[in-house]
Amino acid sequence: MLDKLFQSFPFYLLGAAVGLLVLHLLYYRFNYTDRRREPPGPRPLPLLGNLLQVDPMKLDRNLFELSKRFGPVFTVYFGVKKVVVLAGYHTVKQALINHAEEFGNREVTPIFDDFTKGNGILFTNGDTWKEMRRFALTTLRDFGMGRRLSEEKITEEIHHLIKEFEQYDGKAFNNSRVVNYAFFNIISAIMFEKRFEYKDPVFQAMVARDHNTIQLTGSASILSLTYNLFPWLGPFLKNWRKLMKNVEDNKAEMKHIIKELKKTWNPNTCRCFVDAFLTRQQNLEVSPSTLLWSVVFLLILGLLTKSITSQNKLKEPPGPRPLPLLGNLLQIDLRRPHKSLCELSKKYGSVFTVYFGTRKVVVLAGYKAVKEALVSFPAEFGDRDITPICQDVSQGHGILFANGDSWKEMRRFALSTLRDFGMGKKLSEDKIIEECQHMIKAIQELEGKPFDTAQLVNYAICNIITAVVYGHRFDYSDPYLMDLVKRSSDMIRLSGSASVQLYNTFPWLGRWIKNRELLLKQRDRNVKEVGDSIRRLKESLSPDCCRGLVDCFLVCQKKEEDLCVTNTHYTEDNLISVVTNLFSAGTDTTSSTLRWGLLLMAKYPHIQEKVQEEVRRLIGSRQVVVADRMNLPYTDAVVHEIMRVANVVHLSVPRATSQDVTFRGYFIKKGTTVIPLLTSVLADETEWETPHTFNPGHFLNEHGKFVSREAFIPFAAGRRVCLGEGLARMDVFIFFTSLLQHFRFTPPPGVTEDELDLTPVVGFTRSPSPHQLCAVHQGGF
Ligand code: HEM
């Protein structure tokens, strides 16, 4: 009975296992005593080695931790396999460079030996490796790396990739598959002079197999543990079987491609890597399997590089190559930046990067990209970019150049107060009408003589804001108004000047930039003047009867004081900044738009006549009101077209990303300056029939009815959209229509319509060049 037991198979197996274990422990005992002369390391367990301390799935992190304990050269055991780890720059460099020969061989684990069978470059040693590496290097230099040829191939592939991305129309998608295709294609172009269509099922299967091979090779069961430690287990491991099948299937596909290339191969004209190899083979008789393995591994390497680089460095928007320090300043005309940026967008697409000196700026161009960013990513693109000059002037207070909670509170306050005192209310309509009448009277007094439109229009528009903010208007001859208008337009002009842009790029130039000094002087004057006005209003404040925005602010301030609110945003600094913001953001923009309107009417008298005919027919001589807009389709279309062509805030007011964001496949880091290029939207060739012509037809249908257009966004969009949009639209409509009801605008004597110059003065805003017009009285119809 016992004999039988002893002779049975399980008994032998048990005996063999015990024997192996004893041998193993003995091995470790000897080995461990030996280890004193070897690099230190954690104590290994029998059979398992240090696998309990080193998780194969977190290898790099665990080894890094161990290096802190055992120093830059240490030993670990992956099961029974002893591995020496080199850590830190100096040690790695010393080993790889000073001992290049000693550390120069590749470790060929069983799994990689299965793949390559001693062929190729990546997992070979000795003469084969040396020869193949030399060959691949020289051939890649000819067909690939560092040459224009490869740059062209990469650029071509990028175009295909962009097209693929565009199909998703901004919707979320997993980009890994198509990005894999692109990388595979770039290597394929170098290897076979062939790119595959992304939809080709054979290609898709090949890339999927390669990708899967990389994943399986890294899987714990294959790479670190079972198979590499106990290779005889291979056929029993599912991952190993799958891996071998992947490799064999892809090998078959490559063989097929190489066979096809061979048919048209001509040793005198090398088209690609494979051709070069075949030529070399003819001369030297290199084995075909070496070729196959070189190709297979270069393709795998391509994908591997992609997966590493895409993890660490997401793709940023393309753009012209920047120069050190200067960035792309040589490609951007600082006096016409919107034009240069539009030109660049033709080459680099709808999302691109430019460097203003060392300052990186992402530009969004075209209606679709701008709208998508501002509306679909409101939070991500919702911060204001605070340039050095804006910081100098606003110091984070107010609305225009502020962010965070203070901005939120001030914007909310201003919006609700403007609603009460300004936009869309009868109250503001009455104020605009009253101001319009003052202006008409002032123009009448000129008796048709030429005059510069700037001054009068500025005074009238500024008075609308003083009425909203302070609760009263000023006479056009009042020095307070004159000074206020001058300061506001000076500040806009100076902040958009080329030298201040230069200061924004190189803030250390500060003291030497004269325009910056002038701007800061104006800021100080503003703080004093606005501060004095606020004090005067405070003295006569009656909380039950607010005269304007300042009164409302003072009431809120008092309420917060009474409630002992700490960290209140209702501070004097914020009040002064809000008031200054409304003057500077509201005066120059609206009056430039109106001045463009009058200039365009003088230049295109047939359009002016059509407006006047419509007003005469439908309104007669009574006062125009906002509600008339619905009944004056042609006039409304002309007003919209004026705003489109005027394009007064041509670069919008630059934004900044509030967090890291991936937009249209590009990674944009938190805090990056973003320019939503409004010029490119208002003249988007894919949106407007005649983008560069003054054509009211853009806003009319075939029946002459007004149609709104989606790409009409002169006030931008999203959560920072112009706060005064409603007020500005009312201003422009009532002033424009009322002025045309009373006057015909013509060029001054001696100047023809053709000679009227439409070249803009470009700063922060885009206004007409100084000019004169005559206003010939029509008698109010
Ligand atoms: C035709 C006239 C106007 C045009 C074309 C215009 C255009 C713009 C644009 C493009 C922006 C940037 C929006 C963004 O970042 O998305 C802006 C912001 C602003 N606008 Fe206007 N604007 C005009 C009139 C006004 C008026 C009349 C006021 C005030 C009464 C005003 C007050 C502001 C303010 C306070 C901001 C900053 C909003 C913020 O940062 O939250 N604007 N404007």
Automatic annotation (TrEMBL):
GO terms for molecular function: heme binding; iron ion binding; oxidoreductase activity, acting on paired donors, with incorporation or reduction of molecular oxygen, reduced flavin or flavoprotein as one donor, and incorporation of one atom of oxygen. Belongs to the cytochrome P450 family. Heme binds at C722. Pfam families: p450. The gene is LOC114860402. This is Cytochrome P450 2K1-like. It comes from Betta splendens. Its main location: endoplasmic reticulum. GO terms for biological process: aflatoxin metabolic process; organic acid metabolic process; xenobiotic metabolic process. It is found in: Endoplasmic reticulum membrane; Microsome membrane. InterPro entries: Cyt_P450 (IPR001128), Cyt_P450_E_grp-I (IPR002401), Cyt_P450_E_grp-I_CYP2D-like (IPR008069), Cyt_P450_sf (IPR036396), Cytochrome_P450_fam2 (IPR050182). Its cofactor is heme. The chain crosses the membrane at residues 6-28. One of its GO terms (cellular component) is endoplasmic reticulum membrane.
